[in-house]
Amino acid sequence: MSLSERIEQLEAEINKAQARTAEEVERFRVAMLGRNGAVTELFETFKQVAAEEKRALGQRMNQLKQRAQSRWEELKAGVSAGAAEAGPRVDTSTPALLRPTGSLHPITIIRQRIVDVFARIGFTVSQGPEVEDDHHNFSALNFPPDHPARDMQDTFFVEGPGGLALRTHTSSVQVRVMEGSKPPIRTISPGRVYRNEAISARAHCMFHQVEALYVDEGVSFAELKGTLDYFAKSMFGTEVSIRLRPSYFPFTEPSAEVDMSCTICGGAGCNVCKHSGWVEIMGCGMVDPAVLANCGIDPERYSGFALGMGVERIAQLVYRVPDLRLYWENDTRFLDQFTAGSVRS
Fold this sequence. Notes:
Elements: H1 3-16, H2 22-33, H3 38-46, H4 51-86, H5 106-119, E1 124-125, E2 131-132, H6 134-137, E3 165-166, H7 171-180, E4 185-194, E5 206-216, H8 221-236, E6 242-249, E7 252-261, E8 278-287, H9 289-294, E9 303-310, H10 311-319, H11 332-335
Helix pairs in contact: 1-3, 1-4, 2-4, 3-4, 5-10
């Protein structure tokens, strides 16, 4: 077979070549353009061609090699495109496979909700130490030296000088705010507090409080009652009502306990409200002038109100979980029920 005929034969083979896989593409390259490939061997034969024929045959040889290379690129591109089409497709309408995620603790959810309610009427958040001195925890708040709260049966004291104790309320934060700020003061102080109490369904040695303080010129009891009504309706719904009962706290005068109409029975009476139609939610009162004076605020010019609530108590009424111990046993079967969206508006 002449060289010209061999060129024509290879051209026909190259044009008819097909490949469905990358391996077949590679076999084509080796068969035509490899070290021992047909086109490569043809160039070795070309060295023996007579000089007068080399010019014409040389052009055809170069065209043959170029055609082999272009066909190899075509086959390679075709296999890549086919693999992409046959590969896995992403269905954007398929629901995502979500892994189990954690949720906020129910006490954290309620505390943040309380903070949000007061933030909407201009209250800022203040923080203070959980280990407090006698002045901020007791003396500045009108607790006399013989008050029961100073007894070891009620308070966790810290060994050592200075009369330190785990704070029994976040009112100590209010003292620090009044000592370091000038009226008008409008702040809340959420945080952990500690009482030396036996753990039961209704009591715990560690719990959470949120206390609010408003001090300015001309602050009245009517403003306190309006704030309480706003809070109750924001937290539990517009259908609830509140009532105030006279009470006593060393740092407020007059003082009151705040009751709310039972959200479970609608005021008709049930086990939760002890068939009274009312449940206690917090204590409040006008800041005692002596407390203002202790903190360097002129009681002749300024007045104020304070209120305080247990976060666990509010959580009990929102989630209707009567046993406080459930919140701290870290049972994921219980905690997984709570999400931020489960708090009622």
